[in-house]
Every structure is written in structure tokens, then in C-alpha cells.
Design brief:
Blueprint lengths: L15 H4 L6 E3 L4 E3 L2 E4 L2 E3 L2 E3 L2 E4 L1 E4 L4 E3 L2 E8 L2 E3 L2 E9 L4 E3 L2 E9 L3 E3 L2 E9 L5
Parallel strand pairs: 1-4, 2-5, 3-6, 4-7, 5-8, 7-9, 8-10, 9-11, 10-12, 11-13, 12-14, 13-15
């Protein structure tokens, strides 16, 4: 019997992208390194390191302490860790205060928490800035 990975994403609790996630079909655990392309259905969480690209029809969460080196494409993307590459989402990108991103962002809606670091271009329809008030 496999156990669902424990998720500590306090900065993203209650955000719409995660509200619809009932479980992760793919996970890269803390201390793990995955090299290659990740594609498919379902939701993915990265708490370790991924070196490669993605094409996902679901929500991708890069947790605090997680890192992604390569281009990301998913329905929704939540970043609490580090990304070096472009991020494209069909619905929404959420960047929490612990995130560090070097690359372009493309999405209709992008939410960026105070304290997050982004170095790159932004292509979107609407930017929502917010102050994360949770501990």
C-alpha cells in the first residue's frame, strides 16, 4: 500500500490551484533527482530536483526545497522552490514568497507573493499581487 507524500506548502494553503488537487499521481521526493521529460495526466509534486522539461495536463507543484531545471508546461503551476527555465500554464501560475525563478512566465493569470524572486519576462492577461498573511 503506497502512502501519499506529506506536503508542507503552508504558503499555498487555500489557493485555488491546489483546492482542486485531490492527490498527486507523480512525485519526486526530497533528496531525489529525476532527469528526463515528464508528461501526462494528473498532478505532480516536486520536492527534489528535476532536470528536463514537462508537458502536463494537471497541476504541477514545485515545493519549498524543490528545484526544476528546464521548461515547464502544465494546466496550473505552483512554485515555492526554484525554477531555471520558462513556465507556461494554461490557467494559472502561483508564485509563493519562497520561490526563486529565472525564466519567462506565460499564463492568463499570474499571482506573485511578496518576497518571491523572478528574473525574466512575463506574458499574461492579468497580474494579481498579494501579501501572504499566513504563518
Amino acid at each position: 500500500m503506497s502512502k501519499e507524500p506529506k506536503i508542507n506548502l503552508a504558503n499555498t494553503k487555500g489557493r485555488r490551484s491546489l483546492d482542486s488537487v485531490e492527490g498527486f499521481t507523480t512525485s519526486v521526493g526530497a533528496g531525489s533527482v529525476f532527469t528526463g521529460r515528464i508528461s501526462g495526466e494528473g498532478h505532480t509534486i516536486v520536492l527534489g530536483r528535476v532536470e528536463g522539461d514537462s508537458e502536463l495536463n494537471g497541476t504541477l507543484v514545485i515545493g519549498e526545497g524543490g528545484a526544476w531545471i528546464g521548461d515547464v508546461s502544465a494546466r496550473n503551476v505552483v512554485v515555492a522552490g526554484q525554477v531555471e527555465g520558462s513556465i507556461t500554464a494554461q490557467e494559472k501560475i502561483e508564485i509563493v514568497s519562497t520561490a526563486k525563478i529565472h525564466g519567462s512566465l506565460t499564463c492568463p493569470i499570474i499571482a506573485i507573493a511578496e518576497g518571491a524572486v523572478h528574473d525574466g519576462q512575463v506574458h499574461m492577461g492579468e497580474v494579481k499581487r498579494f501579501t501572504d498573511r499566513r504563518d
